[in-house]
Amino acid sequence: MASHLSRHFSERAKELRASEVRELLKLLQVPDMISFAGGFPNPESFPAELVREIVNDVLKKDGAQALQYGITEGYMPLRESIAERMNKKGMNTTKDNILVVSGSQQVIDLTGKVFIDPKDLVVVTAPTYLTALTGWAVFQASFESVPIDKDNMRMDIFEERIRRLAKRSNAPVMVYALPNFQNPAGVTMPERNRRRLVDLASEYDFLILEDDPYGELRYRGTPIPPIKSFDDEGRVIYMSTFSKTLAPGLRVGWVVADPEILSKLVIAKQSADVCANVLGQRIAHEYIVRGHIDPQIEKIKALYSRKMDLMLDGMEEFMPEGISWTKPEGGMFLWVDLPEGMDSSELLKKALKKRVAFVTGKAFFADPKEGTGSLRLNFTHPSDQMITEGLRRLGSVLNQEIVSKWDKSADDRKIEDAVKGTFLNKT
After folding, report:
1. Which end of the chain is more exposed for a tag (fewer CB within 10 A), N or C?
2. How far is CA 151 from CA 53, 182, 266, 327, in A?
3. Does the pTM exceed 0.90?
4. Structure confidence at residue 191 (pLDDT)
């Protein structure tokens, strides 16, 4: 085998790093491992029988076309169905504004190709979706991180930053927003902040990529219109997916964008995969037009709502004092802040010995120095029993860590007191 093959890698390839979540998912194969690490939907929610029925019908009726290449823009009837659903959310759109993609994750790659040159600035929250960071890092983007609070992006800080950044030669080209039950923190952006973000995009001439995979998964409170619904200049690119409301294995998502932007995304997609999964698109379309999608969403919401409540109750029961966490109204995740000085990477090593896994916070920050004192927990994939048992194990590890840290601090104080006493006696 040839040696030193790495010299053939591009400069971009040399910067590629494995996803921490994807590496942790390998731990699912470890016996008795309880994983809160992934962002997987629960298989109990998959409508296997209905999908089987749809596949049989599609193949009997139109098998040749369903198994053939499709057009890059996507299966036209599906685009029409998606446009109809988007209009119910306040978007003024048609099939000509819709591009079907291979899961909404593909949009990260396509927007990188279309909008990002090396060193271009993208504004993200801190924390943010980790694969957006790794996806745009391939295109050598630079990042400006804005902290979050219970209302998602801190708009006061963002406004101050954008005024300053707009004066630079490389002003931000795009702001990446996950307004609904943000991954990883589970926090939601209020309507006033969505409107303000659109106003600032117009004032300072940047685009907004609105990532909304969890918008249908609201278990409490009132739905909030998408950022895209307030956009009258075509500055907002909206993306979503059937992965959370039907099945991730279909690999079918979509983009809503201004035709000028969409045309470039289509060209970028042509060189990536020609078209999205054609059979998957046909399944998604039939699922919508046969009236299954809304009952399916309600079924998922009932399942996940119970699991979220179970996790929140477990956090109250098993977490020691000094630990805080978000209380989302939907989505798939909780964000946990540890006591000052505690490192989630070190905590993970000890948790794995107790057969419980999570994702460390630093994976979700553009600056690797941030996030050491936080972690993300997923509540949708584990069974009810695993949620309770996993939190019991994690709480035990945290208690031991806090006690150990306290004992160490007490020892340090004793030493300090002894040294102080010796000094006083000598004087």
Report:
1. N
2. 42, 10, 34, 12
3. yes
4. 98
